[in-house]
Amino acid sequence: MSVGTQVLKSKADSRAEIMKWAFVVCAMVALSECLVQIPLEKGKTAREILEEQGLWEEYKQKFPYNPMSKFDHRFAVAGEPMTNDADLSYYGIISIGTPPQSFKVIFDTGSSNLWVPSVYCSSPACNNHNKFNPSKSSTFRYNGTPLDIRYGTGSMTGVLAYDTVTVGGLAVTNQIFGLSQSEAPFMQYMRADGILGLAYPRLSASGATPVFDNMMKEGLVNQDLFSVYLTSNSQQGSVVTFGGTDPNHYYGPITWIPLSNELYWQITVDSVTVNGQVVACSGGCQAIVDTGTSLIVGPQSSISNINSVVGASSQNGDYVVSCNNIGQMPDVTFHIHGQQFTLPASAYVSQSSYFGCRTGFGNGGDSLWILGDVFIRQYYSIFNRAQNMVGLARAR
Predict the structure, then answer these.
(1) Which of 192, 258, 270, 309 is most buried by its number of CB atoms within 10 A?
(2) Are 196 and 94 contacting, i.e. CB atoms less than 8 angstroms apart?
(3) Which cysteine pairs make disulfide bonds (predicted)?
(4) Active-site positions?
């Protein structure tokens, strides 16, 4: 096979891979009214991988879960190499460069930067993930501004550059993104290569314009919103929809909730109740709707109270329950903007052959809550930049 033929075959294979992970749904009324959808794979979590290798207890002690370090730098311990969110499991495929180089990314509404591993990185986490190679892209432009980001799931350092980023067939030209030069050790156990942030530009490290902002600026989306549907158990079915909503994934009315802070997707929760009794967030609290956090996270006293009321006990940092009791455990209801968003025990308890059953309520900071994947799996979530609102509807 000639070199030219090999290149063409490589391009075709890359495009086929990308199209496998993207599809377009168009309304019958007008072909222009299209929704660009990115299927999300629900892969093995880092916890599951480490448990299979008998390493989970060691890593849990070495890298404790610190979800608030992502949102509040007061919780980022100086010199701490990383924290872990070992239960993240959803990722989708994007491509960067010409010809396209493919990457698995977490679509993260709790951060604003796009970054992927690069050939400049020699960390173990880079060596077992796809690396971007600038020399293989004809549209690459170097920027060189340093980038340093800390997440609840780890940290990275790198530099910024520009290239064409393709998301679900939408080609965003001259998109600024990060090339990692170092990544925290725990990230080698994550299936995703990098992270695509979907929060507000004000949050973006080093002033980098987020991908969705450029989509809006370039008129690539029909509406200035995107929506997220997460399945519970099956690997297939989860999806991010850019430019609209998909009624196939929700039913009933959409509750539109104005943001209380246009930095994250932050809203006001009125209270949390169990059996009609307020068990947390009395008088109201602030919460971030975050696809990049696996659990529902809140202040320790509130989380301890919820777990106590539903019958969970603290064990090695997790709140565990008897798997036989799930059917008798009470619902937990979040009261938001005059509406009730109820989670049955089947939604907030996860079961594993390794760790048994544990709840999805985890300890966080001193006031802020995070409504992560445990919540989003129950409620189709719409992130509306045009009106600065979050929409929630019952997921199918």
Answers:
(1) 192
(2) yes
(3) 121-126, 281-285, 323-357
(4) 108, 290
